[in-house]
Amino acid sequence: MSPAHQEAAVQEGILRRQSTRESAARTYARALPIVPVRARGMTIEGADGRRYLDCLSGAGTLALGHNHPVVLEAIRQVLDSGAPLHVLDLATPVKDDFTSELFRTLPPGLAERARIQFCGPAGTDAVEAALKLVRAATGRDGMLAFTGAYHGMTAGALEVSGAAPSVRVARLPYPQDYRCPFGLGGQGGAELSARWTENLIDDTKSGVPAPAGMILEPVQGEGGVLPAPDGWLRRMREITAARGIPLIVDEVQTGVGRTGAFWAVEHSGIVPDVMVLSKAIGGSLPLAVVVYRDDLDLWPPGAHAGTFRGNQLAMAAGAATLAYVREHGLAERAATLGARMLAQLRSLAVDHPCVGEVRGRGLMIGVELVDAGCDRDRLEDTIEAEIEHGPRADASDGLPPTARPRPPAPELAATVQRECLRRGLIVELGGRHSSVVRLLPPLTITDEQASAVLDRLADALAAAARHDHG
């Protein structure tokens, strides 16, 4: 057997054993049947010898890509120092360095009076802590959250996420252009969203009592890469501040330069009461914290605890990552390169009617795929109906069929993902119907790698469209 066949056999064996041993709840492994054995920067090498450009980046965790030298050196220094690796929430020099670097990056209005709570290692635990914090501080229970949100998989985090099966949460419309719930998009849609929110809170017969807080993402990731308009975010800050409602901003995926600013709230200039942070702040290792205004710090000792709050390796790797992003201007780099990639993708979309919308901010990019044939079918059906029966008296939304958003195409998106993988490109899917191809490359991506990503995606899109048409 040739070396290539041996490598392929090893990979197939590992994948087969995973499928028989691991939970049915596994996710990424289903769409990405690879076995990573080496990685550096943006490149992953599988057990079968194939190489891939990684535009998933640990679901946005790897701000500096895989195994960045500054991260590895920070980890080695802790390992070689003889320092304890497990310390619960005791003070250590490593923790002090991490906290100092984190506070150095925070929005000034928050940093000058901030407190930090180290949580369990996942972002969802930090969300739970944030919800618990504002409930303890206000003495109220309910929460305001948004359609399309994703805040984690534990009970409280799921309640404030868009797919919650049962809730004690009031759900508000999140502004978007392509599938605006009000049929407007743009500034008009965002304004109606803000008015709806304000009315719901102030209407004594809305059925929504005074909430303990509002939680939102400045860019919805799992919701389909939907950037919130800056003006709308400022309105949410004004509405909550005027009514004494703490504003929680979930920066788990948007933080550490991802959107073209160190923290996504900086685009709008708002200062939230609470920020939930995880993913990139651990420099590729598990770490999650909540940073909040000192006057909310009213909970008693032990109100939120966890055995693995003191991950020294993650704090060292995180401090190194935060400093590197700050010192090397990677947020600004993400803004420049992200704008260029968005423009190129929108140009590509002109020739691909299956692309409904290209959107994003910085290096957080989404391409929504839609049913390219539905416009023609819908227009023909409308014309035939009006010829036979005349114009509808109850007339729909006032938009011609070709102006309405087309139905999502999840099967096409899955095909694009597979075609990308065949071409050595790892991408993620998201959105309401898993019809949005998501790009989350590391902030260290080069111009050459960005061009390769777009070329491979364009080729995969063309191949998938041909397959879909056939």
Low-confidence stretches: 391-402
Shape: globular
Could you tell me the mean pLDDT? Answer: 91
Which sequence of strands runs across the widest sheet?
Answer: 4-12-11-10-7-5-6
Describe the protein in words.
It contains 15 helices and 17 strands. Helix 9 packs parallel to helix 10 (230-242). Strands 4-12-11-10-7-5-6 form a 7-stranded mixed β-sheet. The protein has a 4-stranded mixed β-sheet with strand order 1-2-3-15. A 4-stranded antiparallel β-sheet has the order 13-14-17-16, covered by helices on one side. It is α/β, with parallel strands linked by helices and 470 residues long. Strand 8 (219-220) and strand 9 (226-227) form a beta hairpin. Helix content is 42%, strand content 15%. The protein has helices at 3-21, 28-31, 57-60, 69-81, 93-105, 108-111, 123-138, 155-159, 186-202, 230-242, 312-327, 330-349, 374-389, 410-422, 447-469; strands spanning 36-40, 43-46, 51-54, 114-118, 143-146, 169-172, 213-216, 219-220, 226-227, 247-250, 274-277, 289-293, 355-361, 364-369, 425-426, 428-430, 436-439.
List keywords for this structure.
470 residues; alpha/beta; seven-stranded mixed β-sheet; four-stranded mixed β-sheet; 17 strands
